């Protein structure tokens, strides 16, 4: 009897082992694959979040907002531009909108754009996706438009304002006159976007846009900024920052 019991137990053990092998082979994937699946889930979560992380031309009514009255009681109002020296990122209060000029290719590889990418990598992820995934080479982001990226990078709580003033970059950038024309339209759209989250915005800081890698003299850009006729619900003040060594 003992030998039969041992034989029966061994048989059950072998069957259990064989069954276990089968369950492992046909059941849930090994840990490495599960980790990969989790990473993929996180990536999908990041992409889903990025869809909520910006405002752009699709968030503006097509009912002619640019043709709305520019002022109340016929009194026109222009932007109040103040000048500051130092690092525009350092000491910026929570809720600040930090503005720079961009190409429509989703490329932040040089100049002040590179600094934005280093300071705000998640904002760059959203911006690049908008330019390269939501749009394409045959249907690119339009120049003269803007994008407002909501705070996502740590505790900085800074909004990023992107002005699409040139289609390309480097040697293929737009001509200066075209960049200037795009700037007026882009900033007008950005101010409209900011008005939609105005209660969450504290101030607007801008670098000397277009004067770096786009090669447009700052004086020309400043002139067009001051020529914009503001809508009653738009912000009226912008701080322009340049580095101490300039």
Automatic annotation (TrEMBL):
- GO MF terms held by the record: phosphoprotein phosphatase activity
Q: Where is the composition biased (Polar residues)?
A: 1-19
Which keywords describe this protein according to UniProt?
Answer: Hydrolase, Protein phosphatase
The keyword Hydrolase is assigned to this record: yes
Could you tell me which residues belong to the region Disordered? 1-53, 61-80
Q: Which Gene3D superfamilies match?
A: Leucine Aminopeptidase, subunit E, domain 1
- Chemical reaction(s) catalysed: ADP-alpha-D-ribose 1''-phosphate + H2O = ADP-D-ribose + phosphate
* Location of the Macro domain: 68-246
Q: Which InterPro entries match?
A: ADP-ribose_metab_enzymes, Macro_dom, Macro_dom-like
The alphabetized list of GO BP terms reads: peptidyl-glutamate ADP-deribosylation
What is the enzyme's class at the highest EC level? hydrolase
Q: Where is the composition biased (Basic and acidic residues)?
A: 39-53
**Entry function:** Highly specific phosphatase involved in the metabolism of ADP-ribose 1''-phosphate (Appr1p) which is produced as a consequence of tRNA splicing.
What is the official name of this protein in its record? ADP-ribose 1''-phosphate phosphatase
Question: From which organism does this entry originate?
Answer: Didymella exigua CBS 183.55
